[in-house]
Amino acid sequence: MKARLLAVALAPQNRKWWTLFAVSFGLFMIMLDNTVVNVALPSMQRALHIGSGELEWVVVGYALSFATFMLTGGKLADLFGRRLLFVIGLVIFTGSSLACGLAPSAGFLIGARVVQGLGAAIMNPATLGIITATFPPRQRGTAIGIWAGTSAMALAIGPLVGGVLTEKVNWSWIFFINVPVGIVAVATAFWAIDESRDTSSEQRLDLPGLLTSAVGLFALTYALIEGNSYGWASGRILGLFGFAVVALAVFVVLELRQRLPMLDVSLFRNPTFAGANVAMLLVTLAMFGIFFYNSLFIQNVLGYSAIQTGAIFLPMTVLIIFIAPRAGALTDRIGARWLIGGGLSLVSISLVLFAQLDQQSDFWNILPGLLVGGTGMGLTMTPVTAAAMSAVKVDKAGVGSAVLNSMRQIGGSLGIAIMGAVVASEVHVGQHSPLFAGQFVGGYHHALYVACGIAAAGALVAVVTVRKVRQVEPAEAAVAA
To answer: Are residues 257 and 268 in the same domain?
Structure first.
């Protein structure tokens, strides 16, 4: 009986689901580390005697290297093999997680977090590339739905997991927990994932493209992260933005002239690919900043603890996990266009609902926004990912995935920066002042309405640009040949 069950599990038609399990395992670790660290920062500060500037870089270092090397990771995955790059990224991420937990000083911890972000940037594009190469078009939306649900679940439960581990065990365990998970994921990857790469033509490493894209993305992300600290009109920030524009413009010119470019710029001639990427940028711009400031509002204004704050977001988490795979299956049947448009419209409504909250609000006042927002995010993230990946050939899946994930990271950084600037424009006193709550709520409301407009713009872009792409199944291609 056991042998029969094992044979069923190893059957070719079932093995692809083990592949999905392996890449989702790795993705869960990456996304969890985007949010799990935030609630542990005070404990780290006390244990390692970290200053406020260094503490900020514990978070920023990870986000910066993650965004900077994403496009490079996607190209390397297409060139040298997606399973190989997935495993390399996973090993780097797991080893640096161990180093983070053992960090004896602030500098060591920041350095380990930068390396951890590098591992995530190598691993993340490969996950979506592997799924695209493994699943036929008729099942790809369902698989991407599970992938997106895993990502959303990790992002949402990060604060709760971080709060529990920090308060009940030790802050180091938010990193140590990655080690056994990473080991299992590496073993599963070698067993379950078949190697795939871009075999469409002669391939070589585009070093000028790698250099200019990495430098441009680094300057852009750094400027977005540090804009509130130095001032958006400061010479440092304006110089970084100018440098980023020049570097990325040089990158585009190089890619247009290269015989074998790192990024095939012609991908953006496809309106579905271009529109899906813009929609991803706008939805993360609208929501990531609000996730961040919702947490601050709930803790600093309403007075909830870190664990309670994480638990409050569970209704949204459950809805995203439940809806995302079903939205993926629905995308396979009807296309992504109206799902993205409807989902982003619900996101806009949820932001208006959050804007009705004030100092006297409780969980029951917060719940409607969580329910509507969770439904909207669940309906949006899978179809927008499926639409972008359906518009690229399987050989270019790694680069297509890297572009999409770069849009998500840049949108998230830009969202936190913009929402932070809007909130900061209203707050003129310290956190312990009796005037702080009222001023913060005023800025929070203005930020929510800005985010609402951004989400509505994303809905319009999706409806105008995204179309259903019919991919030819391998069997059909063989018959046609």
So the answer is: no
